[in-house]
Amino acid sequence: MAKVAVLGYGTVGSGIVEVIKTNQELINQRVGDEVDVKYILDLREFPGDPYEDMIVHDVNVIMDDPEVTIVCEAMGGIGAAYQFTKTALSKGKSVCTSNKALVAEYGPELLALAKENHCSYLFEASCGGGIPIIRPLQTCLLQEQVVALKGIINGTTNYILTKMELEGADFETVLKDAQSLGYAEANPEADIEGYDVQRKIAILSSLAFGNTVFYKDVPTEGITKITIDDFKYMKQLKATIKLLGMSRYEDGKYFAMVAPFVLTKESPLYNVSDVMNAILVTGNTLGDSMFYGAGAGKLPTASAVVSDVIECAMNPGKTIKGTWKPEKLELSDLSDAKRRFFVRIANANEEAVKVAFGHVQMLEPVYDGEVAFVTDVMTERSYKDIASAFDVVNMIRMDS
Amino acid sequence: MAKVAVLGYGTVGSGIVEVIKTNQELINQRVGDEVDVKYILDLREFPGDPYEDMIVHDVNVIMDDPEVTIVCEAMGGIGAAYQFTKTALSKGKSVCTSNKALVAEYGPELLALAKENHCSYLFEASCGGGIPIIRPLQTCLLQEQVVALKGIINGTTNYILTKMELEGADFETVLKDAQSLGYAEANPEADIEGYDVQRKIAILSSLAFGNTVFYKDVPTEGITKITIDDFKYMKQLKATIKLLGMSRYEDGKYFAMVAPFVLTKESPLYNVSDVMNAILVTGNTLGDSMFYGAGAGKLPTASAVVSDVIECAMNPGKTIKGTWKPEKLELSDLSDAKRRFFVRIANANEEAVKVAFGHVQMLEPVYDGEVAFVTDVMTERSYKDIASAFDVVNMIRMDS
Question: Of A18, A23, A292, which is closest to B268 when you measure between CB atoms?
Fold first, then answer.
């Protein structure tokens, strides 16, 4: 018998209860044991809620009940969620969460605490919502040296970019539209500035490469500088613009970054639209594989948390083995990363650009006096050196 | 120390050795133990091969060596491969394979034999080549009632259909081209008649639904009746044609089939082109998730086998728990399955079609005297009853 406590009865928390209750019989049968919710922790009352009798307001009721072996932390944030997670783990209760902020901030510490106490800290739902990606990285790809990770892992920004492209609407208009639909928060900074993706790519990279990538070390740009003019050029390139979290292993060096990228039709990520998410993983012998699905949403996210609950229930008293070690992964300076660049320059002429950048693919300008082009492969350092002499309207990195 | 024997030194077998040797250090570190190849069984000699000294011709050398705890069966077929797999499992040696024919024919028996002998029978590479799909189905989706599986899981036919669409070339021409490139066998029947997909969807459905779907029970149509004229109509529908292995759980009934389907641009499978494969899994709470990658090829397939080797090496003396039970899954008669149908009829007029089929979406005919249309949702039984009165040129089921 595995008794579960859910901390926080908001969107994800109530989803967790719903998934367990909906598929209760099937889950019990597959686990070979009864898995059920015993407590729901929330400060609020929920009169009339079908699970009203499980609501408790005092976390100690949960922590002091030895019957509770699995805790789902669905509170969010890195305050009380951090304290409660530590308390649960230190009492040998496994913790399953979708809380990417907490995982990105304290992952190695919490994993170590779980190991010490013969339980697990699992977070399948923290990246890519319902997409199975964390567990595959740790169980299906152990034979691979991952050489690249590229993820469209923020539904809000992907929705905004998709709408800008399809409807020719500008960033501000689409953002307001996304806010009214509930796809973007009232304060959208974490999404549009890339901070959400920064945490997720740090977690995914730590799992893929085995050592800790701390999120604050990942250079991050958001999508606020992308305009509908940029999308006009994309039509010429048969390409689109996506906010990618990406990391790479190349010539013994690790790189990571979050930024908008130009993706051509050949990329498997090209067609990942609206609020959908996908993560493309490249292994040194496997080549590309991609994991696609709903990157957010109540039930998909909750379903991923429950997949963790099931793994804990099937392995009582054990720590699920993972790949993420506490040692820091040294990220190399992006100035050394090589790629092509899509560039728009004002107040210049094609000849000056060609003299400075060498061979480029010229595009048909959208404005008089603008020169738009794609460079050959060069380092970011070279690009910056050369571009500093020009009046750059926008630069977006090419994915390939 | 986990010593591995590879049975069969052909494409996949040599790939397995290559993956293990290439990533040896990383694999050892992740397993926490040394994993290495000790024997390679093949009837042929391989003078000058770097692993020549591991070649043995007598399978008993492997079976009688207690140091060998993991056997990779890369022989193919259901003759000697079946015998050797049984011998290995009965001696407590885990077996990892890409042999879909053997898994589809004897899966439940071999899984039971493994369990009896405290070892595992794993086959990640049997469906979708290098795509992680078997393990995710058994570890990431246990909280889900799978309601639909749809797979583009044969690279040969996907290559042929992609070329027909993009180049407007006919089936026979593209098939010859595929044969000369090595994408199709000299005897292409297993691919183009859908028998390869039939085995794979039977395996995937058995894992997803938990009871055994026997491949011969899955109604199967290949792609030989697809013509370039069909693709002309697809442009009008903003759609394409893909050979799908699919199964569904609907109103308490299970359906499975292999057939060409019309996929519109909205389907995540629409853009899976050339030899790439993808499997779309729909769960009752998760919704859609898709797994995409190289469905064949030496190293991707070998990589998937080695992922199984690693799981066995991390769990010595244990049987990896799976979802596939020996009880037969009763498949319902497809006549009850409901969908829309793309239909081409010769020697008829639009009025007669409308009278017979009711509301339809008429298409612009490619030939004089042909009527082409998409029906509303109806059962296969209704479709067949009505269509029997007409001279049907071709019918392709709509995916949605």
Answer: A292
